[in-house]
Design brief:
5 helices, Acetyltransferase_Butenolide, disordered N terminus, single chain, alpha+beta, Acyl_CoA_acyltransferase, 6-stranded mixed beta sheet, 6 strands, GNAT_dom
Length: about 150
Amino acid sequence: MNRKKIMQILTRTQGAYTLSTDSQKLDINTIHHFLAHDSYWARHIPRETVERAIKNSLNFGVYHGNSQVGYARIISDYATIAYLGDVFILPEHRGQALSKWLMESIKSHPQLQGLRRWILLTADAHELYKAYGWTALATPDRWMECHNPKVYQG
């Protein structure tokens, strides 16, 4: 079964802002620019990699009018686990509780309910995520990773 066909598109409004899971609305130029130039976690990421990640994720876009001002994506099996990544609100739109609205929308998404585990990585937004149920790893000695922080550097 193709999950893209059964995925419910959600749209919400808050003042002058709209949040949508419609991947057709995403501004890939804005997403790529932020990730490649302004993020600490995906600096130098190729556009083709961003496009492939978007294609294979549940995407949440935040818009002011027709301009994309925020983004997050979920990688999940929709049964047991979800990974939250690439979360951002553009600097000129911060301070308006958009990240909280984005997190509430993600955590309440109907197809992300009943999961056994949610995971994410963050260097600077611990307090935001704690408000939505994330904690430090209870058993960090059980976790392993293969991490290549220079994968996008020429």
